[in-house]
Specification:
The chain has 355 residues and is α/β, with parallel strands linked by helices. It is built from 13 helices and 15 strands. The chain folds into 2 domains: 121 residues, NAD(P)-binding Rossmann-like Domain (Rossmann fold); 192 residues, Dihydrodipicolinate Reductase, domain 2. Helix 5 packs antiparallel against helix 12 and helix 9 packs across helix 12. The structure holds nicotinamide-adenine-dinucleotide (NAD). The site of nicotinamide-adenine-dinucleotide has 26 residues, from helix 1.
Amino acid sequence: MEHTVRYGIIGTGMMGHEHVRNLALLPGAEVVAYADPESSSRWWTRQLIGSEADEYADYRDLLKQASVDAIVISSPNHTHREVLEHVFDTDMHVLVEKPLCTTVDDARFVVERAEAHAGVVWVGMEYRYLAPIARLLEEVRAGSVGRLRMLAIREHRFPFLPKVGDWNRFARHTGGTFVEKCCHFFDLMRLITDSEPVRVFASAAQDVNHLDEEYAGEVPDILDNGYVVVDFESGARGLLDLCMFAEAGRNEQEIAATGDAGKVECFLPESTVVVGRRSPRSLEIEQLAVDAEIEAAGGHHGSTYVEHERFRAAIVGGSGPAVSASDGLRAVVMGAAAELSVTESRVVEIAELLV
Ligand SMILES: NC(=O)c1ccc[n+]([C@@H]2O[C@H](COP(=O)([O-])OP(=O)(O)OC[C@H]3O[C@@H](n4cnc5c(N)ncnc54)[C@H](O)[C@@H]3O)[C@@H](O)[C@H]2O)c1
């Protein structure tokens, strides 16, 4: 019989529920407890899981009292460090949502503690597991593009959604758009180029979104469009093209990895991958499908399910995380460098932030 891993979810808003729905489909996984200070979030969670699971208003009580093997942290970004500090006092495994933390200092602190932690510490970068992106990575690794020189990632999407307590309206709670949202893409850039960033230049602004909103007299301060150029140690360059008032388009994410021998592109949600070779010239177009039940469980085209399959396998198999705290830190550093580049209108060397 499959060993059942018992999960506790800390923070049961939109993403917490996506974790609950995906874990419900995963063999050998059971959500047995959850914690959220907001009664309406707990009420929705109860509708989703039923009354079997233990409910807590304070996550510290869950950590002390619930019989769980693994924690999923899906509370707001600025709470991750504090929640992790308490998890590190236990020997539980933990999957913490992206971004690891909102500041480089907090993320460094977490990396130090994670290295000494008995359980698996995994950062929720599930874009790695989106089928078209995983396929693009496979092609690059197999040498289809030759020597990778350019990696362009475009996200053109809808504005930030409303959140419980409006935490995502201010950079002090999110880390800023390039940390909060774009840590996924910086993580992908490191993964696909198989190289570390050296310097970053970003041009960005808050031009359109949330300018007519006010929270306790304060207008949100989140960037809604910009370009980020990244130089990598390998000589490859990355470009992030972000626009958050661009839902009137065909795809949300488009990635192009181009080398001296060819180009691989992927498109989401279209779920297509295009592999082009220069010599002899060829073009293959592949359409990837996701299991309908898994697709329905999460808003991330099946990637949250794959993330949980792998997290669980690491727990049961005693292996390390595929996305470590150190990976989480490096994505935060790139995002923070981009934010600093915008604020100071200059090129930022990664070494300034990661000494
Ligand atoms: N991987 C992804 O693609 C992805 C997508 C969306 C959100 N996220 C991340 O998931 C996390 C949650 O985002 P969301 O969209 O679900 O936000 P949300 O506002 O919908 O939910 C957050 C929940 O956390 C609760 N909360 C607040 N403080 C808490 C605390 N101290 N302890 C426990 N719970 C607490 C809130 O009451 C709320 O119910 C964020 O870190 C976000 O960046 C990741």
